[in-house]
Request: fold
Amino acid sequence: MVAGRRLSALMLVLAVALGLGQAGAADPTAVAGTGGAVVSAELAASQAGVEILGAGGNAADAAVATALALAVVHPQAGNLGGGGFAVVRFSGRVAALDFRETAPAAARADMYLDGRGRPVAEASLIGPLAAGVPGSPAGLRELHAAYGRLPWPQVVEPAIRLAGEGFRVSRRLSGDIAEEQALLGRFPSSAAIWLPGGRPVAAGALVLQPELAATLRDYAAAGPSAISEGPRAAAIEAASRAHGGILTAADLAAYRPLWREPVRFSAFGWQAASMPPPSSGGIIVAQTCGLLQRTGWAALPRFGADRAHQLAETWRRCFADRFQLGDPDRTGFDGSPLLSASWLDLRAGQLRRHATPSKKVRPWSEPAARESGQTTHLSVVDGDGNAVSMTTTLNGSFGCGLTVDGAGFLLNNEMDDFAAAPGQPNLYGLVQGEANAVAPGKRMLSSMSPLVCWRQGEVLVLGSPGGPRIPTATAQVLLNIVVDADELQAAVNRPRIHHQWFPDAIFAEPDALAPETAAELKRRGHELREIKAIGDVSAVRRAADGGVEAAADPRGGGAAVVQHPAPG
Ligand code: GLY
Reply:
């Protein structure tokens, strides 16, 4: 991705900073200014959001416009055929919207197991049998209906334009298409758009999506029923059946987004709100802050082994507790005991100088690990300080790979976020519980942790993709800011580590651990594994005086855009 700051030729009032596609390659300049700001995975999508702010829209209008633009220009994760979560703060009040996918009515607990009870590779990942009932069409409309200011069709307009008139493919998108060429090549409807002539669309090429533009036009006119009923719902059911799926038009018509009470917690002097179950992400970030505040983490030397050790030991326990989480409407367990003072005290008291083997850390019980990296996060503030933190996903990159003929968008493979075989590591090592077993109509457990924090007139909006690495990436950026007073971009850039209970290892980005720190961690019993990148954080910070900073993550290639850039 192109480096540095530049002014958009089309939108001279905007300042733009782009990520670079590789952690540590160089420092993208954070953009600063006044008014609103949007950070998302693609420049065209961030610009769509700021265009809507410029037209008098608020943070909800801009977030929806950005999310819909991502459905056009970031098909790896932006979507109409997937779902997500949003945490909002408007006029000082927080709320959480759940538009997570649900399992189709015909889903069964053993649908991804072979005759011997073992998960069948690929069954929950490739093709529409892997798809949950999309939540985005109803969810984005719901967010707008509750908080938006501009007329609905105006908010959809930038996405219609990008789909109908086309957009230039970024280097990131071209590279991701090349990586998923085998998946997209299985489905002619997907290959026709993203593999013309059998080759990945090149960076800089213009891509038009007339079928998606038509869907978006009808969505602008009629709302979610343009997708969940009538010919498009029939097209989704037909495409699903033709490729072995179980998704029906009745599933689409039955889908409802839900408002939930956010997870609220304090983070080293800031107040914070994030997503409750069916995401585990908010609870993990809240537990992280709760435990670290109890164990004196902030006073430990920065970048030393003590801090890394305590983070790993904290997350080992957070992910063990995650084992008990699932769709709260099915399990009856909303996760709040995991944040009780007595449980956090007990967990904090378990931390020792030496690593505790994960097999000795039991999940929470009364009373006493790959989700895909392809998710996308957008952070928005408006000129009044209202904030939207939204994470959406198809799960895997380009979801299940199938573009629906007659609708023009990809279906998700979110069913893989269920525990196909509870108690056994899934294909990516994450161990999940019976609470997250497949059942009809149930929401699959997520790790997404859209986060809004505030303190004395300041607002901070953070979030990330990355499956189980979402809450640990988000928590580290938060800690860099609220504990170590990093500038926003420095906080985002800083190398990261991760632990998820199983596999029992600290995953570390290159440069995250100095050689002497790594040696000390090994002496304390930790296994270390290198990983290229942990998360892709989109961050916005608004000061009490109305100044805004916005930072895209160099790991990804996203773009930060500020409404009124600072002079110079
Ligand atoms: N699909 C990734 C997540 O929901 O955590």
Observations:
- The first strand starts at residue 5 and ends at 7.
- Residues 371-372, 375, 393, 395, 417, 446-448, 467, 470 surround glycine (CB under 6 Å).
